[in-house]
Amino acid sequence: MANKKVPVRQCVGCREMKGKKELIRIIRTPEDEVVLDAEGKKNGRGAYLCPNPECLKLAVRSKGLERSLKISIPQEIYEKLEKEMNAFAK
Asked: What is the model's pLDDT at position 90?
């Protein structure tokens, strides 16, 4: 029996490679909104983060999320993402 491949993605905060299902997807929609994609199915350019608030802080500090999504992100969006991540993690 063949082993099934597990899709692997890199967290833009801690830069670790993890399984796609372990990470949270953040997308830039065609309307240039930045939103959390809990199902991982929405259209748009995506970036992946660990469900750890520290990874979000690292991504903000290194501008990894902005680089991945190819858009500048205001501080209000980061605060909104942090609230949504905390709700998602619980």
From this structure: 61
What's the pLDDT tens digit per position in 56-75?
A: 899 999 999 999 999 998 89
Contact 45, 34 (CB under 8 A): no
Which pLDDT band, with edges at 50, 70 and 90, does 6 fall under?
A: confident
CA 89 to chain centre: 13
Contact status, residue 71 vs residue 30, Cβ threshold 8 Å: no
- Give the count of domains, the chain: 1
Q: Which domain holds residue 46?
A: 8-89
41 dihedral zone (left: phi>0; alpha: psi -120 to 50; beta):
alpha
